[in-house]
Design brief:
four-stranded antiparallel β-sheet, about 270 residues, seven-stranded mixed β-sheet, alpha/beta, binds adenosine-5'-diphosphate, binds magnesium ion, single chain
Length: about 270
């Protein structure tokens, strides 16, 4: 399948710095009763410093599996191939230790369900304490925990620190998950459908927060979404996935205004 790359070119800063992520030919298959089923097929992906890349496509198109490959979180039942460089480091897919080190600093993630990052029996303080001890950076004191929560857009940090997840709204849980994700001072945040489970007003707040974080800290974000509206709002570039492949990529305005691939056109036409 042809990958269509829209002009104009990427923002100027990318011409000086090497991309934070460069993936080539990523392929992932899962064992099934009838053999190996391909989930991701020859995906090339690039993430520049300080940009938000939107990865869109219908359910089952391979967005999450692509990101699991970037994070070294593929299940043992998968087979994979491809080349990956993250922040200048070439990674051997399947090198669990190298990916664990990467997830301890350079790259972090949040998911659709914030509860997947939170233990119902632990307060936000206990979560942050545990995470900061793991990173062993810049202390794990009260000040640092409050700073992380504030960066994640929490204003009443004292109440939230003492709360268990069930005492917080979905939006606040996602903010706690974002504070945890920021604890290792990552350069890359992978956000897999981070607003899908939230109310519409809270969705907008979380998107604004991702945008603010990117601006304030030069954090680069891969934002996975099946919602083109979400992507159009804050992304710089977009990659459209269909049946395990990236079928179109380019600056978000160019792709959404003049989609070159029939699948992207269909996606646009089916927007509510
Ligand atoms: P998306 O995130 O775009 O909705 P996924 O990346 O989760 O889609 O899934 C892509 C394909 O891989 C789907 O067909 C899905 O059923 C399959 N898949 C994902 N995870 C697994 C797994 N752990 N075992 C087997 N198949 C999987
Ligand atoms: Mg998914």
């Amino acid at each position: 399948m042809t990958v269509i790359t829209s002009s104009p070119a990427v923002p100027p800063r990318s011409r000086v710095a090497a991309p934070l992520i460069e993936a080539e030919g990523l392929s992932v298959s899962f064992a099934s009763e009838t053999g190996f089923l391909p989930a991701v097929r020859g995906v090339d992906l690039r993430l520049e410093e300080g940009e938000i890349l939107g990865l869109v496509g219908e359910s089952g198109s391979g967005k999450s599996v692509t990101c699991q490959a970037l994070l070294g979180l593929l299940p043992a039942s998968s087979t994979f191939a491809g080349c990956l460089r993250v922040a200048g480091e070439t990674l051997v897919l399947g090198d669990a230790l190298a990916f664990e080190r990467l997830r301890g600093g350079t790259i972090s993630m949040i998911f659709q369900d914030p509860m997947s990052a939170l233990d119902p029996l632990m307060t936000a303080r206990a979560h942050l304490h545990q995470r900061l001890r793991r990173h062993e950076r810049r202390g794990d004191g009260e000040e640092r925990m409050q700073e992380l929560l504030r960066r994640a857009g929490v204003s009443d940090t004292v109440r939230v620190l003492d709360a268990y997840p069930h005492q917080l709204s979905g939006g606040l849980c996602q903010r706690v998950a974002i504070a945890l994700a920021l604890a290792g001072e990552p350069r890359i945040l992978v956000a897999d459908e981070p607003t899908t489970a939230l109310d519409v007003t809270v969705q907008a707040q979380v998107l604004d927060l991702l945008d603010d974080l990117r601006r304030a800290r030069d954090l680069a974000v891969i934002l996975i979404s099946h919602d083109l509206g979400v992507v159009a709002e804050i992304c710089d570039r977009i990659a459209v996935m269909y049946a395990g492949q990236i079928v179109e990529t380019g600056p978000v305005d160019a792709v959404l205004e003049q989609p070159a691939h029939p699948y992207t056109l269909g996606l646009l036409e089916s927007r509510p």
